[in-house]
Design goal:
single chain; mainly beta; 5-stranded antiparallel β-sheet; 5-stranded mixed beta barrel
Length: 237
């Protein structure tokens, strides 16, 4: 799954050039983030026109008339997208597929002893470069106002991620794959085929600061393990 991630980049020009959107349209509050949490506003690129938007993380279903009235999934399993009434119509619409921009994500290793603290790990791609999760978004009127929200797609874990969790986010493998995900020339089946497991060779895992366990905590220190923490080694499959 993907329940927390990072978007530590702070240069809108660099992000605009990488993802083909307008620099002036990138919301500044969505960058420089070390602990992006559900229900927060996140940076996404939507549609073939590559519009930069800030979307609420947690997809509000079409039958909801107010927030938190029911499930608002932050993740959706890629394998079952075409079978779910909430996700299938969005997958079929190119204008409801999006790129959620990031440069890492967190997963937690369960403690070996009961009552022990979970150990966070941060995963990066290609040495820490920005990348895009595949996302689905929608917009509707909630509590009397228009609200745009998003869910991040997940798939089975690769060999680097599997020692900590059996799921990982769907990272689109290249700019070409990102363009195809947003293209109206790709129907639901073709878009589904883009949701492959990212190669383990492109993925790196590193321990993170346990302070990231708490939602709302921010700062670059979350990427650094305190000297008092006991190092944890992962056995890769």
């Amino acid at each position: 799954m993907c329940g927390r991630y990072t978007a530590t980049f702070v240069e809108p020009q660099r992000i605009a050039e990488r993802f083909g959107t307008l620099e002036s349209a990138i919301p500044g509050a969505t960058m420089g983030r070390f602990n992006v949490c559900p229900t927060e506003q996140v940076l996404a690129v939507c549609g073939e026109g590559r519009e930069a938007r800030d979307l609420r993380w947690g997809l509000v279903p079409p039958w909801a008339r107010k927030l938190r009235a029911g499930p608002e999934p932050i993740n959706a399993r890629a394998e079952t997208l075409r079978d779910k009434r909430l996700f299938a119509p969005l997958l079929a619409r190119a204008d409801r597929r999006c790129l959620v921009l990031a440069d890492g994500w967190y997963e937690w290793l369960r403690p070996e002893r009961p009552g022990g603290a979970r150990v966070p790990f941060r995963y990066t791609v290609d040495g820490g470069a920005p990348f895009a999760f595949a996302g689905l978004w929608d917009e509707r009127r909630v509590d009397g106002e228009r609200l745009a929200s998003v869910t991040i797609l997940t798939t089975g874990a690769n060999e680097v991620c599997a020692p900590v969790h059996n799921r990982m986010p769907c990272v689109l493998e290249s700019p070409d794959a990102e363009a195809a995900w947003l293209s109206p020339d790709f129907d639901a089946d073709a878009a589904f085929d883009l949701l492959a497991v990212l190669a383990a060779a492109r993925t790196t895992a590193a321990p993170a600061n346990p302070a990231v366990n708490k939602a709302g905590v921010e700062g670059a220190e979350l990427l650094i393990v305190p000297a008092v923490a006991e190092p944890v080694q992962l056995e890769l499959g």
